[in-house]
Design goal:
The chain starts with a strand and ends with a helix. Strand 1 and strand 2 (about 10) form a beta hairpin. It has seven helices and nine strands, in the order E-E-H-E-H-E-H-E-E-E-H-H-E-E-H-H. The chain has a three-stranded parallel sheet with strand order 3-4-5. The chain is of the alpha/beta class and about 260 residues long. Helices cover about 35% and strands about 15% of the residues.
Length: about 260
């Protein structure tokens, strides 16, 4: 045994050990009060088009707060939320459980809300069986794919990185899921792709509903981008001008020719 210092090594003396001391006093805080949420939302209210990844699966108090924000007109630009849905055959359909994909889609019912069904299944590196991931992982990857592309690029039939899933929807189930506004995957020629980039909007018998909302994510994103550009270009052109310079006809003409 030795004592080692900067100047010498002395033989025959045992090292002294120091007992491990755990840190204490650390606190993890979550934003839970209405005031705390309002503070966050106010801080981001004027930034770019935002997509929220909901970490809660299904309908929850946290997800409801996000939904109230994106639909409440508090932000300058359009926002979206992606909600993890069901993961297997048992939680695709049904309206009794707040974590089924059908319940989530019908509950939020908006072009600004997307719910994703599916649970990726990975082979463990040790070769000891498979590992099932929650629908949050799939939701996050799809959000990244959509937000990383151009608004006008539909996510339909775009490949995802996962190679296997806990449950593959059958044809009739896929048709029903699309009608209910549930985004899900299908296998095409050995690749897992998004079957169709749908929102949770329930009035989806036509591409654009009478209220202007759309069942297609890409169309909703195009509208959000156009609105953003109109806002950014119209502010310096009309704000602070006289009534004659910013009359309704001038604003209308500007919008139609933008």
């Amino acid at each position: 045994h030795f004592i080692i210092s900067g100047s010498n090594i002395t033989a025959g003396t045992e090292f002294k050990t120091t007992a491990a001391v755990s840190t204490s006093g650390g606190v993890t805080n979550f934003f839970t009060t209405a005031d705390e949420f309002d503070t966050i939302f106010e801080a981001i209210s004027e930034i770019d088009i935002t997509a929220f990844l909901c970490v809660d699966k299904g309908v929850s108090t946290l997800n409801d707060r996000i939904y109230a924000y994106i639909k409440g007109g508090m932000s300058k630009f359009t926002n979206f939320m992606f909600v993890p849905g069901g993961e297997s055959y048992d939680d695709i359909f049904g309206t009794e459980d707040s974590e089924t994909s059908e319940y989530i889609a019908k509950y939020y019912n908006s072009e600004q809300a997307i719910t994703v069904h599916g649970s990726p299944e990975l082979v463990r590196n040790t070769g000891n069986g498979d590992k099932q991931l929650s629908s949050l992982y799939l939701t996050a990857s799809i959000l990244g794919m959509i937000c990383g592309g151009s608004p006008q690029t539909p996510p339909t039939f775009k490949k995802v990185g996962y190679q296997n899933f806990v449950y593959a929807l059958k044809q009739k189930e896929r048709i029903k899921a699309l009608q209910l506004g549930i985004l899900h995957l299908r296998n095409v020629n050995g690749y897992w792709v998004i079957n169709q980039g749908v929102t949770t909007l329930q009035d989806n018998k036509q591409t654009i509903a009478l209220d202007g909302q759309s069942l297609e994510i890409s169309i909703a994103l195009i509208k959000a981008q156009l609105n953003k550009e109109l806002i950014l270009d119209a502010e310096p052109r009309f704000t602070g001008k006289t009534a004659a310079q910013a009359d309704p006809e001038s604003v209308k003409n500007f919008t139609e020719t933008k």
